[in-house]
Amino acid sequence: MNDAAPRLPGGRKAEIAGYVNRLGQVTVTALADHFGVSADTIRRDLDQLDADGLLIRMHGGAMSNSAVPWHDTNLSDRARLQASQKDRIGRIAAELVQDGNVLFINGGTTALSLVHHLSNKRELIIATNNLALPVEINPEACRDVYVIGGHVRLSGRVTIGPVAFASAISGVENDIHVDLALIGVGAVDTDGFSTSNLDEAAMLAQMAARARRVAILADSTKLGRRLFAAIGDLAIADYLITNEQPNTELSAALSAHSVQVLTPDTPY
């Protein structure tokens, strides 16, 4: 696409992101031909768009965020998706946490983004299936960290299994309850919250059922979508924390179920 007037870099980058998202996957050569610029220029643009979390930079080209299935990508790749948006979500979620709280924090990069904003908290007790969390959390913020679940899913560095502990002394399984569950999910629509894995969905539902308050964490790419495994309807949540206001239909459904939506623009 060769325009007579020069295109501003910002505008070109936005067009590149949109073009890649429409096609799913595009090579550097194809992008250079389409936008009438050099391959080196395209590479620089793709590097910046990847850093901004707007697409996935690959060898020889780029791939749309939506074209990358969650279960087929590792944690480091997913961490680059919507990175700045997830950081803002994590900052908001941390505001709900009070010193001395008992928390559930699940696996995934959106929930992990919260951990970096808990450094100023104290005396937290955290139960998690997120194997990356113990090495990311500020030790001064926590009194104890417990890892729950059974088998390990290596690609996501999470455990999947029951939300309970067996006593080291009696061997009897102990149920647990928490003040606040902070749960990152794969999709949110008017029917509720969902993810791509049945066992994970069951685990997240157990987390929500054992919490006095539930905050669902989901960046805007998850809104208006539905995945294979249902976690629960909208009523299981007290809060939805996201980076943009949901559309009118989803906003109405959340309001009908008394779910408070928190975004960077929400006064609270």
**Strand percent estimate:** 25-35%
Largest sheet: 7 strands, parallel
Order of helices and strands: HEHHEEHHEHEHEEEEEEEEHEEEHE
Determine the number of helices (DSSP H or I, runs of at least 4 residues). 9
How does the overall form come out from the CA principal axes? globular
Percent helix: 25-40%
CATH topology of the largest domain: Rossmann fold
Protein structure class: alpha/beta
CATH architecture of the largest domain, by name, is 3-Layer(aba) Sandwich
Structural commentary:
By secondary structure, the chain is an alpha/beta fold. It folds into two domains: 9-64, Orthogonal Bundle (Arc Repressor Mutant, subunit A); 75-262, Rossmann fold. Helices cover 32% and strands 25% of the residues. It contains nine helices and 17 strands. It has helices spanning 9-23, 28-35, 39-51, 75-79, 83-94, 109-115, 133-136, 198-209, 248-256; strands at residues 25-27, 56-58, 61-63, 102-105, 124-128, 142-147, 151-153, 158-160, 164-166, 173-175, 178-184, 187-189, 192-195, 211-217, 229-232, 239-241, 260-262. Strands 6-5-4-11-14-16-17 form a seven-stranded parallel β-sheet, sandwiched between helices. A three-stranded antiparallel β-sheet has the order 1-3-2. Helix 2 packs across helix 3 and helix 5 (83-94) crosses helix 6. It is globular. The termini are far apart. The model is unreliable at 1-8 and 69-73 (pLDDT under 50).
